[in-house]
Amino acid sequence: MATVAPQHRKRTPAHRAPRCWLWLAAALLLAACSPQRAIESLEVLQAIAAGPEAQDAADVGATDTQRRPYAFTVRGRAYRADLYLPGKSPLAALVLVPGAVRAGKDDRRFVAFARALTKGRFLVLVPEIATLRELRVGPGDITAIGDAVEHLAGLTEAPAVGLVAISYMGGPAVIAALEARARDLLRFVATVGGYYDIEAALTFFTTGYFREPGETAWRHAAPNPYGKWLFLRSNLTRVEAPRDRTALERIATLKLRDPAADIAPLAAALTPEGRAILDLMTNRDPERTPEMMSRLPSAVIQDLRRLDPAGTTLADLRAKLFAIHGRDDPVIPYSESMALAAAVGDDRARLALVDHLAHVDLTSPSLGDLLTLWRVVYEILELRDDMPAPRPGAMAAPS
């Protein structure tokens, strides 16, 4: 579960499709309860759709956002981070967590997204989670998210902030939001391309099969192999035999570089424990996933349980949830956000499915996609208006 490697699909930036945006703006201004909030929401959405290609474009106006290096410590745990300051005085604050990519918080797509959120007058804290740059994920991510939320809440006039998590980090973010120290600090949690059920996500990674909530028949889509080889790499430290760790690391590296790479010589050298992990990664039968997961090393199984929102009590979630997903997602199927929203409940969850998101890249959005996403942004800004602003001293906090 991770942010997919950079996409090579053709993007249609917002500033290249003026007619679509003109019609959208007119319709929203006529329908919106608050014209000012409608305009702000449109500005946020247009900046998101413009993407990293617009970072240096003068007509987008990205230069009014300041990105500052930042550092903080929570309970003895030290973090590096970036702090994004909007051009106008911030009205609220949120934590933004990237997915697993080698560039981490410096990924161009992610930087563009953080800048876009400042258009909604959010102070944005982006913590550096070092393991994500190494393409290794685990329960420690939950602690890091909770620490960032706790710290940022301390910089606001009252302890309340938002949380936005990308891709794989949606699962740990939801779990962090359930923990006692963060539960009362969060007004909203937004996930983009996140997951709900570890078993379902692994089934899709490896076989391409998935089900919508309540279905018994399987659906199928071609999965991006990035997800399963990231999973393999993430669990190397939990493998007991050194030779397995070496072989599996080599397999993951080869497959991340070339999905067609020949790994047969490396696979032949694995012990039964190492083979159990590789067998799951190469499985093609969705009905076999539960049994194959049960044969994983016990340390891997324990971590999977810790990272599984489906194993939590989501009735305890006090924040408003926004689950955003593309139906064309090749890494984590859209059914995961459907299941997550259903588990939280209609009164506290907002599901937003769009056709052209390609996991986390908004490519060639339709007018319907833009309208769906605009509504999400508008509702988030409604919550923002009742959230406390950052204290003035937060802007000058030492890095």
The chain-level mean pLDDT equals 87
What is the number of independent domains?
Answer: 2
End-to-end C-alpha gap: 31 Å
Into which percent range does the helicity of residues fall? Answer: 40-55%
Shape: globular
Please give the oligomerization state of what you see. Answer: single chain
**What is the CATH architecture descriptor of the largest domain?**
3-Layer(aba) Sandwich
Uncertain segments of ≥5 residues (pLDDT<50)? 1-16, 58-62
Largest sheet: 8 strands, mixed
The fraction of residues assigned to DSSP E strands is 15-25%
Return the CATH topology of the largest domain: Rossmann fold
Which structural class is indicated by helix and strand composition? Answer: alpha/beta
Notes on the structure:
The protein is an alpha/beta fold and 399 residues long. Helices cover 42% and strands 15% of the residues. The protein has 2 domains: 38-197 and 312-396, Rossmann fold, CATH 3.40.50; 224-306, no CATH class. It has 16 helices and 10 strands. Residues 1-16 and 58-62 have low confidence and may be disordered.
